[in-house]
């Protein structure tokens, strides 16, 4: 997949969340990959307006491999622990799940997280 830009920013508050949560390397990598992929969407980080401000997104496991995840495996097992770690932290995602067939991941950031990412002064 070709991305229009490869740089993205996170707010100071999000950097603090990552630091305080003590994520494993795989969990931090997935979290940053999803922030990057959200930034690549047409809406980016709009102000959250209920259901209109955010929608469910998906990414193929193959695309995550292109972003640096394990490429020698044909399954999505490497995502189970990072997804469970991220889901366990309240306020980041309204939805984050591996598809039943294991070929893609779906996510939706929470209203609070949209607010934090929309305000880069934080």
SS element count, helices: 5
How many β-strand runs?
A: 3
Helix/strand-derived category reads alpha+beta
Major beta-sheet overview: 3 strands, antiparallel
Tell me the Rg in angstroms.
14 Å
CATH architecture verdict: 2-Layer Sandwich
Distance between the termini: 32 Å
Mean pLDDT: 80
What is the general shape?
globular
Fold-level CATH name:
Ribosomal Protein S8, Chain: A, domain 1
* Topology pattern, helix = H, strand = E: HHEHHEEH
Order of the strands making up the biggest sheet: 1-3-2
* Tally of structural domains: 1
* Amount of helix: 25-40%
Descriptive account of the structure:
The protein has five helices and three strands. It has one domain (12-118): Ribosomal Protein S8, Chain: A, domain 1 (2-Layer Sandwich). A three-stranded antiparallel β-sheet has the order 1-3-2. The protein starts with 11 loop residues before the first helix and ends with a helix. The chain has helices at residues 12-21, 25-40, 61-66, 80-87, 111-118, and strands at residues 57-60, 93-98, 104-109. The chain is an alpha+beta fold and 122 residues long.
